Amino acid sequence: MLLGLLGLAAACQEGGNSSNASSEVKLDIDHFMAAFGGKAQFDEGFPLEENDTYTDLATLHFKDTGKYQLWRIGQKDPPPPNPYFLEKDGDLTIIVSQDKRSSLRWPGYYDRTGNTYFFVSRTQGFLRAFFGVRQMTGIPDVAG
């Protein structure tokens, strides 16, 4: 029993290697992404400093390889791909690699119609909400 607990502790210490796991549902689609957040606790009071809040705009590209890429506005070099896990019921987990030995898992939800998603993170004293809608191509017919 002790040997089994030691094996479990070693696996947890490495941050959970998910190289052999795969997403139940795989996508090949782009989404707009907006994010906002801030410190979980404002120690200094108001007014807030610039570093107390967080905003972001990007394109989130889900690939059918079970990985995603986050393209920020003005970014020239391709971002590194990271895994995502999407279950048939819409549960979404975004993996954010920190280094070779650790990663963060951000929970969320993906609308089964493929139009919207959200996920949240709580890291380094910040709370963040990420959400978006599917990118559409073409020109809308507003004349009716």
Explain how this protein is built.
The protein is 8% helix and 46% strand. It has 1 helix and 8 strands; from the N terminus they run αββββββββ. It has one helix at 2-13; strands at residues 29-39, 53-62, 67-72, 82-86, 91-99, 102-110, 116-123, 126-133. The longest helix has 12 residues, at 2-13. It is globular.
Q: Please, how many helices?
A: 1
Q: Please tally the β strands and state the result.
A: 8
Largest sheet properties? 8 strands, antiparallel, barrel
- Structural shape: globular
Q: Give the oligomeric state.
A: single chain
Note the gap between the termini: 70 Å
- How much strand content do the residues show? over 45%
**What ranges have pLDDT less than 50 throughout 5 or more consecutive residues?**
1-18
- The helix content, as a percent range, equals under 10%
What's the order of the H and E elements?
Answer: HEEEEEEEE
Mean of residue pLDDT? 80
Radius of gyration: 18 Å
Question: What would a concise description of this structure say?
Answer:
By secondary structure, the chain is mostly beta strands.
Features:
144 residues, mainly beta, eight-stranded antiparallel beta barrel, globular, disordered N terminus
Secondary structure layout plus pairing:
Layout: H1 2-13, E1 29-39, E2 53-62, E3 67-72, E4 82-86, E5 91-99, E6 102-110, E7 116-123, E8 126-133
Antiparallel strand pairs: 1-2, 1-8, 2-3, 3-4, 4-5, 5-6, 6-7, 7-8
